[in-house]
Amino acid sequence: MSQVLMPKATAVWLVENTTLTFDQISAFTGLHPLEIQAIADGEVAGGMTGYDPTTNGQLTKEEIKRVEADSNARLKLSPRDVPMPQARSKGPRYTPVAKRQDRPDAIAWLLKTHPELQDSQVAKLVGSTKSTVQSVKDRSHWNMQNVRQRDPVTLGLCSLKDLNDAVDRARRKAAREDAARKKEAAKSGAVEEVAVSDVDPAEADQPDVAER
């Protein structure tokens, strides 16, 4: 069997959108059944956007229904006559003119769906600028009345891998910053506790004497 594109993201989609067993999804994606179970439990691939294998010709809806009806059946990849997409080379992302009008929609979707992303990440994903991201965020964009949230992957503005990688980096950064804040707060609390303990208990209990 040919290799499945984006196996983990595909597994996420199959877990969320079908009644296939863990073994069936495992056999199709090449992931271990325990990893499929961990995905279903939310312990693995948390926040990852699922990759619909029916939209890229890897599976048909009829094939999924066939295997859902028989727990012993296994999914078979659809024949592919189109060449596999090649990885994009390093450098600035080029957005075709026909798709540039879709960028505000994609920005709105990213801001709503993944608020953990920085403006610079959003701009990079859709090939836009931070000023445009900000204008959509504060609703000052010139065409805001016609902006509607649409998935940038579906629009073809970025790949699912790019999106999931950006979300993963943003969440790891947020986790590091949160840990640093907690550490700083704990340190500040310890300093205050030491300052209080330095006060002489006898002096602390001594009542104030009014001046005569």
Describe, in short, the structure shown.
This protein is mainly α.
Describe, in plain words, how this protein is organized in 3D:
This protein has 212 residues and is mainly alpha-helical. It has two domains: 62 residues, no CATH class; 95 residues, no CATH class. It has eleven helices and no strands. The protein starts with 6 loop residues before the first helix and ends in a 7-residue tail after the last helix. About 5% of the residues have low confidence. It comes from Reyranella aquatilis. It holds the Pfam family TrcR. This is DUF1013 domain-containing protein.
Shape: flat
Helix content: 40-55%
Average predicted confidence as pLDDT: 80
Distance between the termini: 97 Å
- Give the DSSP E fraction (strand runs of 2 or more residues): under 5%
Order of helices and strands: HHHHHHHHHHH
Overall SS class: mainly alpha
Q: Count all strands and give the number.
A: 0
Low-confidence stretches: 82-92
Return the domain count: 2
Protein name: DUF1013 domain-containing protein
InterPro entries: TrcR (IPR010421)
Pfam families: TrcR
Reconstruct the topology from this structure:
Layout: H1 7-17, H2 22-29, H3 33-40, H4 61-68, H5 97-100, H6 103-113, H7 119-126, H8 130-137, H9 152-155, H10 160-197, H11 201-205
Helix pairs in contact: 1-2, 2-3, 6-8, 7-8
List keywords for this structure.
mainly alpha, DUF1013 domain-containing protein, 11 helices, 2 domains, 212 residues, TrcR
